[in-house]
Protein 1
Amino acid sequence: MSTIVIDRITVRENTLECEIRPSADVARFFSGETFVTSYDRSIEDVPEGILAIPVLANVCPVAWANGADVYVDEVDASFARALEDVKASLLGMYDFLEGGTLYARRTIEPKPAAESIDGAESESALLFTGGVDSTCSYVRHRDEEPALVSIRGWTITPDRADDRKWDDLRNRVESFADERGLETAFVESNVLSALDHPMLLAHYKRHVDGAWYSSVGHGLGLLGLCAPMAYARGIGDLYVAATHWDGIDLEWGSRPDIDDNVRWSGTRCHHDAYELTRQERLDAIADYVESDAPSLELQTCNVRMDGNCGECEKCYRTAVGLRLSGLEPSRHGYAFVDRDYDEIRSALEGGEWVLGQDERHMWADIRDRVRETEPSSERERAFFEWLVAVDLDELVADARPPLSHRILRAGARNTPTRVYNGAYPTVKAVKMGLDRIRSVR
């Protein structure tokens, strides 16, 4: 029988550690590292059943993919029920998931913590990066003065190479919060190195449109990482901004039927702004810029965190969206000029960006707005006419990952665990090198 045991949960001031002990048949999906998550305030008074949530939230989807049972000493009763609801949603989404059972020696229902922040109880919090989605959610909930929560462990890894990116993100979020009198919370975790994410990708990439964490794990996983912090701060509502919107039925790890089910004692989670398309979220931001924040800058780039590169697909897509919402991109973080429309068309037609159905829907949303918009220049007119006429499905089909990546994944899937573990550093280095080469292009 496949099993995963969560063992020896310990806390030292603001740092949580625990061991993950998988049975041999699922061991390849775990690196052997101790699971570690750190917060910016003490969590020593948080009950063990809440402390188990971060690791359970990230391990359970791996268990469900393998039909494995998970064992833990203590768990919050509300979260245990939440896991059943999230499992049902994920199993309904993916045929390759098998399910599994959580076994706990004790379930607890602790009273919510009543700790206050600087003398004022924090009633809500928002996962925040400063991008379109999270900024729109802040605009929608700004009357609540939510604490802004940023997490290191997914797009910014715990590796020293990402220290600068994390510092840049923290500085930007702190500046945004200070200008508005908001609290911040920063969470750091080695979740994607405690899990063997390259092996998960190798085994399951063929079943999903994105990577393992984006397609399966990140809604439950990121919210779960926040549980000890939320309990310690007395946060009742935790918002995560929607990526997609109503009418897009994509297999994705953060959706209303996942995030809205996540809960633990004292806290409920909310998938926010799902009723708005990305362009409508930019409209909401544009209204906020006009009324309250004329110098607001967005940060959407995945290449850098100290500003936007202005040349990647996401930067170009956001800049076009800003123009369609009546904002000048150069005033809000994007050095965009009319001739960049030619660069976007060339990159899309040439397959220079690896696109999925996610991006296809984003560009379709832009195209819908283009049909209602009078272009302001000849270059813009030419791009709008091309976008209205082009087959977006063909653009996505032409933008496949390179063959070298597919070969690495296939090799990892079919390599015995002991052999793979010995070769893993080399495989990872090769893959990172290929990624760097592609990003330079």
Protein 2
Amino acid sequence: MTTWLDDVFTAPKPIIAMLHLEALPGDPGYDSKAGIRAIVDRAREELEALQTGGVDGIMISNEFSLPYLTKTEPITAISMARIIGELLPELSTPYGVNVLWDGQASIDLALATGAQWVREIFTGVYASDFGLWNTNVGEIARYRQRIGAGDVKMLFNIVPESAAYLAERDLRSIAQSTVFVASPDALCVSGLTAGAPTDTQALRVVKDVAGDTPVFVNTGVRPSNVAEQLSVADGAVMGTFFKEDGKFENRAKVERVQELMSAVKDFRNTL
């Protein structure tokens, strides 16, 4: 089966590495004394580690903007655009963006920076750690078209972190109806939080009903499980394992990236 992944990535079962930006202006954790320059410097260091380690793509997100907003303030995407603009000369892999948890802002940022995809929660209503969380995929799909961002791929996270679907529906029916009504460019299946393992059986359930829509494992990939998970999924989005000691708050280290990508290459040799 040929999909848009074959046009974007040079290897099968691509590994998309998360580039987590430190807290931004307006965020509770923002370091106003160090300023945006410190955020750019750390992002550049981690980008080098990820690309040198051999990942297939990069996704830039405001991961440290905790606690997240479901409708972000303008300063968030504006700051991210400035940071990405400084990194663009060094981006040698395909890249996407994610403004947590704001689908419209993610699409705005992608169009402004030339990103090829976004990942967000585009469907469903949830009870979450961030309050009642609603979406409007029809509105977002029309907005993407209206601003001329129709080529930006939309990766739908259908198992959102720190949230539960309000309706009594199982994962199979959610995935099946999402594909039918919203035509996602990919589906992402997650664990409870960043770095938490994704249930392989959940991946199988989604893959079974996804048809031609690619399915990504979205959290918790590591060398010990990457072969098992890529035997089901069409690719992986990951970040925590790449960081020093595998801790979410630490910086990405090239040695850990190389370790994971070595396991991926071993798996690809079996395809």
Protein 3
Amino acid sequence: MESNGSPAPRVRDIDLPLGMNVNTRPKQAGSRRLPPASTVFSALIVVAMLGTATAIATRERPFRFPEPVVVSVPVDATIQAPPEPAGTPTAPSAAGPSIIRAETPNTPPPSVTIIRDPSQTVQDQRVAHLPDRSLIEESPDGPLPKRAENGRRPFDTYARPWSGARGAKIALVIGGLGVSQTGTQDAIAKLPPEVTLAFASGGNSLSRWMQAARQAGHELVLQVPLEPFDYPTVDPGRGTLTVDATASENIANLHSVLGRMTNYVGLVNYMGARFVADADALKPLMAELGTRGLMYLDDGTSARSETEAVSQAHGVPFAAADTQIDGTRERGEILKKLDELERTARAQGQAVGIGSAFDTTVDAVASWVAEAKKRGIEIVPISAVARDPERR
């Protein structure tokens, strides 16, 4: 028996049962040791890892990057402009289609796969407001359209894509843009992108309005002033091409018109009843358009026009309007003309209507187009209905 305050007697191995020693003897009750802290921490890590794996396995879409988006971009859509930020599509190699990965904001790269198709020539609509430098000839009159070295035309590149489907289709061209700033802004904002816009060569801020129109999805043509029968009493404006001028004088005036803006597929006459009836006067004009790869649209107001025959002889894509939709500037009459266009399109497969950017015309066209689409009419750009000698 131990006395209070005296140390416990030392236990010797010889005094313990056989097979025991001091280190293996039973521990007293209440003195059990806890497992080491490192063991507990390891167990917690295992549990956390199992929990995370279970959560990932049970998610419908685990922690993954977004699915790549495939966008078809034409081979010649690359704009030769100042260097673009990282991720901007670059020109493909001559070996064939190339896949370019482009980063988009707030998503882990790569998130977009862009495929270039060398068989296409239409400009990428994301940069449709920028001029293609390979299609520009710098001149004292400004940037003139021209064919690229590989023969690609502005008519090809600046055309608005369409479905290519069979069925009734209508091209609508609304002109006079660039004259009234408010009217131009309203027309660009209100008219559906399938409607082609014609800019007056004598308008203001044409480059700015061109960019706005192209960003809104419109195909563009440029109005060229041609001599009417009562010229100069009725004057189409600066740079008018006339029957009595020499070929070089008319080409000089034509260049002053062509340099006013860029990104258009061709020209449409502004007035010009006398000029379009004279084949000899037309030939230098059409030869220049054919060389530069532009189309010609006849507004259909002259029964004596020689533009179709002369344009085809010079390899110029050609279209002619079937109806002037706003000869009477009243909503009901405009809608009647548009209905006539629909009947023509159903009977012949296609039709072309032309008008001016009056408020009444713009509002009537915008509402009529929405209804025509529901009836199965496809509204197409003017390039879609042009007869192209190079695509026979």
